[in-house]
Amino acid sequence: MNFVGTAWSLLPPIIAIALALITKEVYLSLFIGIVSGALLYTNFSPIGATNAIFDMMSEKLGDTGNIGILIFLVFLGVMVALMTKAGGSAAYGDWANKHIKSKRTASLATVGLGVMIFVDDYFNCLTVGSVMRPVTDRFNISRSKLAYLIDATAAPVCIIAPISSWAAAVSGYTSGDGFQLFLSTIPFNLYALLTLIMVVYICASGFDFAKMAKHEENAVNGDLFSGEETTGELIEANPHGKVIDLVLPVLALIIFCVIGLIYTGGFFDGVSFIEAFANCVASRGLVLGSFAALIFTFLLYIPRKVISFREFADCIPQGFKMMVSAILILILAWTLGGFCSTRLEAGTFVSAFLENSTISTAILPAVLFVIATGLAFATGTSWGTFSILIPIVAAIFPEGHPLLVISIASVLAGSVCGDHTSPISDTTIMASAGAQCSHVNHVETQIPYALVVALACIIGYVVAGFTQNLILTFGSALVVLAIELAVLRVIYSRRNA
User: Fold this and answer.
1) CA gap 208, 105 in Å, rounded
2) Distance between CA 183 and CA 186 in Å, rounded?
3) Any residues with CB less than 8 A from the CB of 198 and at least 6 apart, and which?
4) Would you call 268 exposed, middle or buried from its count of C-beta atoms within 10 A (0-12, 13-18, 19+)?
């Protein structure tokens, strides 16, 4: 029996995700999902499946982009270990404790920093986590909540930021002036916009629901990790560290990474700034930037004798150890996603479904949102979902059709929604790593929040399909979101009464 290009192609990630949420054992769950994908691909041949797993994992580890991401992770881990050892993180925590006076302000400051660092989602997740962990810990904000704040201001911000690696990717999947088309989708990207509104509301009101409410209650009682601590070995910090020992390395990281991104895009060869971002190689640029920031940190610490040369060297393996969990999850997730997308061809199944359907064009934006969400959730990749669905939308609607922009926006929104909720998404994994939070804890607390926004988006895109009116589209989605949150507040206030 041939399982390639059929609905069976979606089974392996469903198995992995369900097992991870049920058992809380993410590594084994991902591996079982990989084995099931290999068995489907080889028609249940044990030897063939073993070879297929080896080939797929080798393919993913041989990809220069993936290797760049892993190197970037290690460099960031080393940077975090160095800033902790130098006492910069503790000093920044003390400073923030004097200037940030409440849990609400600490949460909003985390969101604000996430919005400001919009050039790349990986960079966003790890940098915001490194900077804000000492602050959120001081105010007993759970690591699950921190991971949500990081994740909610990573991909949702990048997908509506004109200067970002995501804008470059989307522009490349469309014909003609792809960048101008991308700009046109921003007002209709309901998931990104409503997620930012919701995260600000959650921070300002202090309202939490579902499992996040329990995790926040645990944090108030001193358990930031809800029993799943993942910080690794404790690094003894310099008691005389200064705030600049954290702020300057982070600023250097931001500046050098932006320079690295535009360098790989040809900016220093005469290409315009925006075009350089559109053509950048994100993984290579982030590696170059983080390596330069590491050298800067060495020159900042060693001459001032903040730490010794030996202590600097000791932080290298310590930083690597911090990222081992994220690296392992990423490799397994890439392998599983590879089976689903390139071997079992889930995209082919989805494409055939859309091409053979007789769905009314009026409800197509809502349908595309749901399909994009499901495909990104199953494969763990929003960029892969873009590449599959955007050409289909472009084929359905000619250039200039009022539903072209709305439909592409719904694909982008659904892709980010699926990416946001998927345990095998690299952005979700990065958010867990940035917050040093149990990955399963992050996923199971974030999914209810994402689904609340997703329901409002579906209603909004139904309205968009029939009216093509931005005000009615956004207004209806916002009203639905407000009603959902109001109902949830009533439910949880009665439950806690």
Assistant:
1) 16
2) 6
3) 152, 449, 452, 453, 481, 485
4) exposed
Helix (H, G, I), strand (E, B) or coil at 199: helix
Q: In which residue are the tokens 């849990």 written?
A: 103
Axis crossing angle, helix 64-85 with helix 121-138, rounded to the nearest 10 = 20
Q: Provide the 3-class DSSP secondary structure of residue 388.
A: helix
0.85 surpassed by pTM: no
Specify the residue for token string 């209650």: 217
Q: What angle do CA 252, 256, 262 make, to 5 degrees?
A: 155
Token duo for residue 133: 């962990």
Whole-angstrom distance, CA of residue 462 vs CA of residue 455: 11
- Contact between 164 and 119 under an 8 Å Cβ cutoff? The reply is yes
Mean pLDDT in consecutive groups of 10 residues from the start of the chain, 497 residues: 86 86 83 94 94 94 87 86 86 79 91 79 78 87 95 88 66 63 89 96 93 93 78 66 88 88 90 79 86 95 93 92 82 86 82 75 92 88 80 80 90 93 88 90 94 97 95 97 95 74
- Given its phi and psi angles, is residue 242 left (phi above 0), alpha (psi -120 to 50 degrees) or beta? beta
Q: Is 482 helix (H, G, I), strand (E, B) or coil?
A: helix
The distance of Cα 492 from the centroid of its chain, to the nearest Å, equals 28
The answer to whether 153 touches 128, Cβ cutoff 8 Å, is: yes
Cα pseudo-dihedral 269, 275, 276, 278, rounded to 10: -150
Query: Is residue 58 exposed (0-12), middle (13-18) or buried (19+ Cβ within 10 Å)?
Result: exposed
Contact residues for 285 (Cβ-Cβ < 8 A; gap 6+): 257, 260, 261, 262, 263, 264, 265
Burial of 172: CB neighbours in 10 Å, binned 0-12, 13-18, 19+: middle
